[in-house]
């Protein structure tokens, strides 16, 4: 086989594999959206689920998912940024650094069910919080922290060394260079990493089964006292997220309109995750163009 023919065959194989992946993913997303889109309306997105009669929705579950996202990222982003900056700017090539990176890679590949059991022992039982949003947020932090550290490290390492050298030549110290030069240049990558990491929160269910719980109390959205058990902002109340709700509806089968709620919940979850991924690419590209004036 000649080199030209081999190149054409390899190109065809690569294109065929890419199209196969696109077709499989497109078919899966299209199937979910087609069946679930029929159930999505304003009442479905705002009302709580009904156990006695049909016509319930997923309003509290959507709120719990977004609230859990906020709580989790309050821990993940600051710690992940500090850890990534340390590995990129301060850590030297030593055995300690290799151990740290090995631990990060191990945590990144750890099954979420294991993190859930860890959260059950530490965040639920040892702290005395019980099943709560705070316990779930800390468990998700354990899951997302390695990814955030990796995104931060790669974004910081992508900043040209010439910018660091120019900052030092102008009299700035190392800390001032990181704060005023390195992080602003790496900001588009940091934003993209944070949004992609956030998207993982919506699809997580296994870890939350053991930490945040599988039920939610009746919420009073007019009650803004976070210490009240019925307040939606209370971080120490149990909360059922959208992904957990899909699992619960399909396994227990207690509600009369099970198929409608399950299909609609899956479609909403797909749309939210797609929205986060597309937002990461769009926002990162826009910030990069704004900061580089291109």
Mean pLDDT: 86
Largest sheet: none
> Nearest-angstrom radius of gyration?
23 Å
The proportion of residues forming helix, as a percent range, comes to over 70%
- Main CATH class: Mainly Alpha
Low-pLDDT residue spans: none
Please state the oligomeric state of the protein chains shown: single chain
What is the string of SSEs from the N terminus onward? HHHHHHHHHHH
Total number of strands? 0
CATH architecture: Orthogonal Bundle
Q: Name the structural class.
A: mainly alpha
CATH superfamily heading: MetI-like
Shape summary: globular
Number of helices: 11
For the record, give the distance between the C-alpha atoms at the N and C termini, rounded to a whole number: 45 Å
The overall number of domains is 1
Strand content: under 5%
CATH fold category name: MetI-like fold
Membrane topology: Multi-pass membrane protein
Main location: membrane
GO molecular function, one term: phosphate transmembrane transporter activity
InterPro entries: MetI-like, MetI-like_sf, Phosphate_PstA
């Amino acid at each position: 086989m000649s080199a030209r023919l081999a190149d054409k065959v390899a190109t065809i194989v690569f294109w065929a594999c890419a199209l196969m992946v696109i077709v499989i993913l497109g078919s899966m997303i299209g199937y979910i959206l087609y069946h679930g889109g029929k159930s999505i309306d304003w009442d479905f997105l705002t009302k709580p689920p009904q156990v006695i009669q049909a016509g319930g929705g997923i309003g509290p579950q959507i709120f719990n998912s977004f609230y859990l996202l906020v709580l989790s990222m309050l821990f993940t982003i600051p710690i992940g940024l500090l850890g990534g900056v340390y590995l990129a700017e301060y850590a030297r090539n030593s055995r300690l650094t290799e151990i740290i990176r090995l631990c990060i890679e191990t945590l990144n590949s750890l099954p979420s069910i294991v993190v859930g059991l860890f959260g059950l022992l530490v965040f639920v039982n040892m702290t005395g919080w019980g099943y709560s949003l705070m316990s779930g947020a800390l468990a998700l932090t354990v899951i997302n922290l390695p990814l955030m550290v990796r995104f931060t490290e790669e974004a910081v390492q992508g900043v040209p060394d010439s910018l660091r050298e120019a900052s030092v030549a102008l009299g700035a110290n190392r800390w001032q260079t990181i704060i005023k030069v390195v992080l602003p240049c790496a900001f588009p990558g940091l934003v993209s990493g944070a949004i992609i990491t956030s998207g993982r929160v919506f699809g997580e269910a296994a870890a939350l089964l053991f930490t945040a719980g599988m039920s939610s109390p009746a919420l009073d959205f007019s009650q803004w006292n976070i210490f009240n058990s019925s307040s939606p902002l209370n971080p120490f109340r149990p909360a059922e997220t959208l992904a957990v709700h899909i699992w619960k509806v399909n396994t227990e089968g207690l509600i009369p309109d099970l198929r409608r709620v399950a299909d609609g919940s899956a479609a909403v979850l797909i749309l939210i995750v797609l929205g986060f991924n597309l937002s990461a690419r769009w926002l990162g590209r826009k910030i990069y163009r704004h900061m580089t004036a291109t």
